[in-house]
Amino acid sequence: MIDIAVQLAEARAIQRAGRCQAAADIVEQILVHSPQEPEALHLAGSLAQQLGAGNQALSYFARAIKVAPQDVRNYLLSAFLLEDMQRPGDAIGALQQALVIKPAYAEAHNHIGVILQDQKRYAEAQTYFRNAVQINPNYAKAYNNWGTSLRASGDLLGAVDLFEAAVRLNPDYLLAHYNLGTACLELERFLAAEKHFGNVLLLNSDHAQALSHLGWVQLQLRKFDQAEISYLNSAKLKPGKNVAELHGLATVYWEQGKIEQTLTSYRQILSIAPHDLKAALGALLSLPAIYCDQADLASHRARFAQGLQLVHQQAHEYLTNNDPDRLIAHLSGRSNFYLAYQGLDDKSLQKAYADFLITMLEKIAPQFLQPRIQQSSAGRRLKIGFLSSFFYDCTVGMYFRRWITRLDRTQFEVTLYHLRPYSDPVTQELKENADHFHHLSVSLNPALQIASAVLADDLDILVYPELGMDSTSFLLGALRLAPLQCAGWGHPVTSGHGNIDFFFSSAAMEPADARQHYVEKLVLLNGIGTCYSKPQLPLAGQRIQYGLDDEKTLYLCPQSLFKIHVDTDDLLARIMARDPNGVLVLFEGRHSNITQLFLQRLAKVFEAQGVDLTDRYVLLPSMPHDDYYRVNMLCDVMLDTPHWSGGNTTIDAIACALPIVTLPGGLMRGRQSCAMLRLIGVDELIANDRDDYVDIAVRLGADPQWRKLLARRIASNSHVIFDDETPIRQIEQFFLSYGKCMDSARQTPPALSLVDNFQNQSQQNRSVPPLEKREQRS
User: Fold this and answer.
1) In DSSP terms, which residues pair with 662 in a beta bridge?
2) How far apart are CA 622 and CA 592, in angstroms?
3) Prediction pTM value
């Protein structure tokens, strides 16, 4: 007679060694002699399952249940098999039988939850996961599964708590670390996500998806070099299937200012996925942050224009070979941000790209392009929506927040749509001053989901404070989400969108031929076009704090390096050549490569003027705003940049009474400083031409008395550009006139005569007349 216990122990040992068939043979011999042996039946079922004989395994478990109905393990293993065989209802039935026998069976509760979750029955699944952890508070897998269910149903914060509980209980639980990282990524808790994906890689350094996600997180944290390494390592683990990683690399290279590597990455994607729209747009339309010279700029602009023609020609192929959701995701990841910094009229190019968007959207989202009929506003407030990713302390937030906070609430019902999860005191102020506030983070809400939310609010007017800095809002601007849609000059270039009806701008900043530069109808507001609060300055600092020489004349050029047009280099070099004591004060680019490309270009121009750049500049890092104010107060002259003049930087300089020399251009974005200086009555700082610009700058540097006189005049007159509510009242008048017109016309917005009247009145009341040539200064 065989010793069943010894034979079973031998079979289990052989099973653990991976020899499942040999173990099954031993168990079969046991069952020949003892067909009702419950442990043998249980082990036979497990081995049959491992050998892929599902029906045979089910038969063994059924026999085991009949012999030992109280052994709940057999119900659980049967459920696993039934689930694998696509019989989820039978699997749940088996588990519920186990719970009749053993109500406190945590594993059964957990697995019912898993099956329900696979069926997207999240609320029911969460009940079973909760039961599992109440029965076994140390059940890490149940916490993880519960977290996954909460995440799927939209409760990211709750999911994070549960994933954290899982990794506390089991620090080596790789899947829970990964899930925690992805949840933090979706919440844009980038530092936390970086930590958790790092933990995944400590447990498995070849986890390709964790590497890819880590690259994206590092990209958001502006750790571009680290992001490049993460993406490269992930791509190596997925040869031929690394499109996502190549997209990540293309973005990293673009952020680093490496245009050739950017284009190469996009072309590599197209070799794998020829109809990838995002890669096609990237390969054809990506522009560099820094141009080598004017010829380089012209070459890239020509490539961009040719690329627009190609995407139009290939539109049908993209539509045929991609599903709508994918196309929307790709389109919502692009704006032509760098185009405007070339210093040329972009109307035709912007319109061409906008027309391409419409070609795509008419096929994939036509419901968002239909005319919106204005409802009667009689007896109610007009419903005004503001949509942006920049409702916080930044240039756009500071420029346009009072368009919202100072709008008459007795006449307007205001709704804000904030597209970033990030918030600060400015966000809170705006939230408190709005009737409705929707936090629609683009990481959680795809573009068309945001569009649906806006449509559901049935607005009268939708305002985009900027279009062109944020890619999602740029796509939304192509849609028709309200009867009347307007853009502000947060990004001062026409959007090109036919569905943006009006563009609000500053009468003082626009040239005489301004209307020719916009697809939208232009609405001109008095002053600087907004009610900007005067900055509160900190206590002054000392030059030594910022590595600035007390003996030098400091010429501050604080713009982002990509804003400094190639035409500006010669002006800077000529100023330094004429003032041997002068030092240029610059700020670093967002990546060292951008900084080096700019300095290499600048050095060549300086050399042509006989000036060695090496000791003639100071490069400052990004710094808190109070320190930035102190740098303004410590410098002698601010050099405004032609083609794209200062906006916020000029306001800050004026607040600090720092004299600014500017050369107005032919487009609004090159005339902002000019307008502000004329408004405060210091026209002598506005140059007639390039020679005049150099003369003014050098005189400011060399003549401390004149500089101090101008600084006093700036300080005494600066109130003119601050806290002026006239533009707010004009916007209110515009909105109300529109509402009255639509009540009488009962139609979708035509070329409204009332708006023409408004524009004509604004033109007559322009705060600043067109510039006239003046005599050159001696």
Assistant:
1) 686
2) 12
3) 0.86
